[in-house]
Inverse folding.
């Protein structure tokens, strides 16, 4: 495909691209910016377009990827990292849901409740708390994924009941 044909195809897709950008952003100005950025990126990467490939799909994939990357950057920029020196300081709103200090549970109470779980529920639940993903837990315990999810679900239910009684 020649450079002129490529440019003509991009221009013929501008309406479709704008409507897709509008669906992604839900804002006309942001959609126009996304359309412009996508058009420039497609033109700059013309050499990466493979013949006999769906041109419209290729361009819209570029647009979707730009949108996703921009969204991730925005979320990362809005994330606040607490660099408080006091590691025990918690940023809890005043309305924490606890009526009195007696209504809170100590770490020891929660740990005791977890330790009182049946071994079948305790092991996968403890691994989940330690940061393992469901499929990793299933692999380490040689259990089907559904069994692991069920045991963790049951562990949560039992803990809710046991901790509700302690409050």
């Amino acid at each position: 495909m020649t450079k002129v044909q490529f440019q003509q195809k991009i221009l013929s897709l501008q309406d479709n691209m704008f409507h897709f950008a509008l669906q992604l952003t839900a804002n006309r100005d942001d959609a126009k910016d996304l359309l412009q950025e996508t058009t420039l990126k497609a033109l700059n990467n013309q050499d990466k377009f493979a013949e006999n490939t769906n041109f419209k799909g290729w361009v819209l994939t570029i647009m979707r990827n730009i949108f996703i990357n921009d969204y991730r950057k925005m979320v990362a920029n809005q994330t606040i990292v607490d660099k408080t020196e006091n590691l025990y300081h918690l940023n809890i709103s005043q309305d924490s849901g606890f009526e009195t200090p007696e209504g809170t549970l100590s770490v020891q109470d929660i740990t005791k409740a977890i330790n009182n779980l049946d071994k079948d529920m305790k092991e996968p639940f403890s691994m989940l708390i330690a940061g393992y993903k469901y499929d990793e837990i299933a692999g380490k315990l040689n259990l089907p994924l559904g069994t692991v999810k069920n045991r963790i679900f049951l562990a949560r239910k039992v803990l809710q009941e046991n901790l509700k009684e302690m409050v």
In short: The chain has two domains: 3-78, 101-166. The radius of gyration is 26 Å.
